[in-house]
């Protein structure tokens, strides 16, 4: 990972826009680009899929004007195809990456999703800008809106897919940014929420928002079952994905893929079971019979083993998928603009640093050092200064 000078993006279609990025976050799924998705990355790829900023150029059909403040969702969708009309924006038939059998193109996320230049940059070209951008107001700071790009709608979809609400119980495996917000949204919707994570700082953050927190250990599931009349929670969100702790075989597979020539690694990715499944198997064990398991953590293997007997016997409902961001914005936008901050958006960012310090921030985030839970990069900050407003 490095910071380089590249040519400025340019308008290509009349519904494109160019934004000057004011804030752009590092996502947990960006860390997958280090290891298991490495064979699908190319030198010079610009990554990042959680940006916001101001429009500096607007195509004639973009429905935007220079100066508009916008958040850019991570999926690139046309808004009008068969899938988009059904709210399945991550399956957009206009931007699907058919070469790899993938859904809609994503910003900054490897060949699998179109190799579209991403948003960890000073400027970003936004395709299909007549649909994708979310216009926001000028009164609130960036961090109140930034997470509309991914974290908040992904967490909202995860909880909705878990099918819990007032009086239900919800467990969340993994208290990174998605897990934090999934737990808070569960609470907001009236559920009793249990959060599981091995990192003390993450548990402490969740506990501040009324979540009952547990370390990830052998007795954790039994303790939560004891708290739910022996049944287990009504819904479970797996917000961990392919990098789960306690999955040594999967870890070795990730490392092996990273050492193979790219062409061989890509073939292995498409045919092998490469995921670390510790959190997923624990989720299946924990959820009550007839309950719902919602996967928001990213998985990458195509032949990962699944305990089908248990899934069938427990009558578990299973829902998953990339987040259809625009489908949830009408529900979430009033909450991030509410002065009471009901989802605690003010309490998520732990590090804001200049874009120039991105590689160091990635390393800190990956190693979970210095209480690092959510990193925001500031393309406008001068090197060596903390994030915030500054001259270019």
Structural features, described:
There is one protein chain. The protein has about 400 residues and is of the alpha/beta class. It folds into two domains: about 15-150 and about 325-380, Medium-chain alcohol dehydrogenases, catalytic domain (Quinone Oxidoreductase, Chain A, domain 1, Alpha-Beta Complex); about 150-320, NAD(P)-binding Rossmann-like Domain (Rossmann fold, 3-Layer(aba) Sandwich), CATH 3.40.50. Helices cover about 25% and strands about 15% of the residues. The chain contains twelve helices and 13 strands. The protein has helices at about 80-85, 140-145, 150-160, 175-190, 200-205, 220-225, 250-260, 260-270, 280-285, 310-315, 330-335, 360-365; strands at about 15-25, 50-60, 70, 125, 135, 170-175, 190-195, 210-215, 235-240, 290-295, 315-320, 350-355, 375-380. Strands 1, 2, 3, 4, 5, 12 and 13 form a seven-stranded mixed sheet that branches. β10, α10 (about 310-315) and β11 form a beta-alpha-beta unit. α3 crosses α4 (about 175-190) and α7 packs antiparallel against α8 (about 260-270).
Keywords, separated by commas or semicolons:
392 residues, Rossmann fold, 13 strands, globular
Q: Radius of gyration over alpha carbons?
A: 20 Å
Q: What structural category arises from helix and sheet content?
A: alpha/beta
**What is the CATH architecture term of the largest domain?**
Alpha-Beta Complex
Question: Could you tell me the strand content as a percent range?
Answer: 15-25%
Distance between the termini: 22 Å
Residue runs with pLDDT of under 50 for 5 or more positions: 244-254, 387-392
CATH topology of the largest domain, by name, is Quinone Oxidoreductase, Chain A, domain 1
Quick one: CATH class of the largest domain? Answer: Alpha Beta
Mean pLDDT: 90
State the shape.
globular
Share of residues in helices: 25-40%
CATH superfamily of the largest domain: Medium-chain alcohol dehydrogenases, catalytic domain
Q: Number of DSSP helices? A: 12
Q: Regarding quaternary structure, how should these chains be classified? A: single chain
Work out the count of structural domains: 2
**Count of individual beta strands:** 13
């Amino acid at each position: 990972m490095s910071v380089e000078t590249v040519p400025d993006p340019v308008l290509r279609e009349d519904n494109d826009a160019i934004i000057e990025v004011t804030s752009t976050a590092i996502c947990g799924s960006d860390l997958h680009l280090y290891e298991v998705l490495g064979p699908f990355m190319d030198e010079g790829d610009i990554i990042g899929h959680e940006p916001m900023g101001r429009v500096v150029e607007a195509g004639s059909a973009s429905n935007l004007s220079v100066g508009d403040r916008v958040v850019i969702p991570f999926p690139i969708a046309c808004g009008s195809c068969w899938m988009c009309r059904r709210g399945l924006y991550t399956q957009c038939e206009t931007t699907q990456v058919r070469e790899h059998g993938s859904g809609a193109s994503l910003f900054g996320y490897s060949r699998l999703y179109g190799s579209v230049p991403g948003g960890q940059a000073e400027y970003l070209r936004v395709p299909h800008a007549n649909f994708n951008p979310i216009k926001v107001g000028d009164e609130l700071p960036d961090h109140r809106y930034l997470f509309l790009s991914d974290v908040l709608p992904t967490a909202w979809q995860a909880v909705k897919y878990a099918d819990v609400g007032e009086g239900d119980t919800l467990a969340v495996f993994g208290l990174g940014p998605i897990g934090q917000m999934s737990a808070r949204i569960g609470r907001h919707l009236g559920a009793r929420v249990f959060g599981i994570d091995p990192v003390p700082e993450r548990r402490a953050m969740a506990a501040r928002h009324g979540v009952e927190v547990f370390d990830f250990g052998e007795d954790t599931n039994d303790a939560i079952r004891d708290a739910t009349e022996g049944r287990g929670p009504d819904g479970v969100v797996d917000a961990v994905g392919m990098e789960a702790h306690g999955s040594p075989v999967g870890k070795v597979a990730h490392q092996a893929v990273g050492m193979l020539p790219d062409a061989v690694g890509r073939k292995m990715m498409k045919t092998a079971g490469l995921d670390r499944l510790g959190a997923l198997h624990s989720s299946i064990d924990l959820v009550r019979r007839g309950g719902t398991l919602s996967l928001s953590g990213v998985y990458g293997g195509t032949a990962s083993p699944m305990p089908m007997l248990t899934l069938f016997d427990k009558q578990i409902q299973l829902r998953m998928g990339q987040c259809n961001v625009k489908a949830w914005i009408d529900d979430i936008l009033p909450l991030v603009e509410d002065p009471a901050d009901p989802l605690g958006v003010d309490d998520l960012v732990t590090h804001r640093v200049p874009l120039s310090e991105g590689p160091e921030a990635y390393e800190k985030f990956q190693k979970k050092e210095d209480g690092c839970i959510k990193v925001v990069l500031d393309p406008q900050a001068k090197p060596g200064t903390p994030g915030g407003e500054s001259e270019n």
